[in-house]
Amino acid sequence: MSADPKKLPDTSIRFSIDTDRNLPQGALPGTMTAQIQKLLADNQTLQREKDEIESKFSEKIETLESSLQIEKEKREEAEERAQIAEEELIKEKKEKMDIKVRLENENEIEKKLIEKENDRKQIELKLKYETEAKNDAISKTEKAERSKKTEIETV
Q1: Over the range 52-91, which residues count as b (16 or more CB within 10 Å of their CB) and which as e?
Q2: Quick check: is 9 in a domain?
Q3: Is residue 14 part of a domain?
Q4: Which of residues 154 and 57 earns the better pLDDT score?
Q5: ∠ CA(46), CA(39), CA(16), 5° rounding?
Q6: For residue 152, what are the CA distances in angstroms to 63, 69, 145, 147, 149?
């Protein structure tokens, strides 16, 4: 993190040696030395325990931060895939709409072609009837002319 806890000086316990204030009445200087040494040993033990705890929690923090980073990357990848899927879906919908519009246009064109084909057939049929009627009229006229011609010739 910011600094190695083992390299920081311990400022939590301060020793001040004031002979008159700190010395209990009737205490011998040798006893005081033993007490100071015991307190120093206890302090070192507590400092080691503190360092071990800090080290352990520092490792846990690093592990959690690593896990958090991995999860963050996974989430970003998932969001990216979701964005791509969304864009593909929009593109697919647009293509389907374009196909639908083209199909409707083709159906309209097909209807118009069928209508024109039906009109053409009606015109052909009408032309056929008119041609037959004219041919019948020509045939009747020719027959009438022949009949008159033979009548004139026989008279």
Answers
A1: eeeeeeeeeeeeeeeeeeeeeeeeeeeeeeeeeeeeeeee
A2: no
A3: no
A4: 57
A5: 115
A6: 130, 122, 10, 8, 5
Model confidence pLDDT, tens digit, residues 112-139? 999 999 999 999 999 999 999 999 999 9
Q: What domain range is 146 assigned to?
A: 30-154
Whether residue 85 is contained in a domain is answered as yes
Q: What is the pLDDT of residues 3-41, one digit of tens each?
A: 555 555 555 555 554 444 555 555 567 889 999 999 999
- At 103, list the tokens: 């199909």
Asked if 35 and 28 count as a contact pair (C-beta separation under 8 A), the reply is: no
Q: Answer whether 47's CB lies under 8 Å from 10's CB.
A: yes
Task: Fill in the amino acid letter for 147.
Answer: S
Q: How many domains does the chain have?
A: 1
In a domain, 126, yes or no: yes
Name the DSSP letter for residue 133: H
Model pTM score: 0.46
Query: What span, in angstroms and rounded, lies between the C-alpha atoms of 125 and 131?
Result: 10
Q: For the chain, give the number of residues.
A: 155
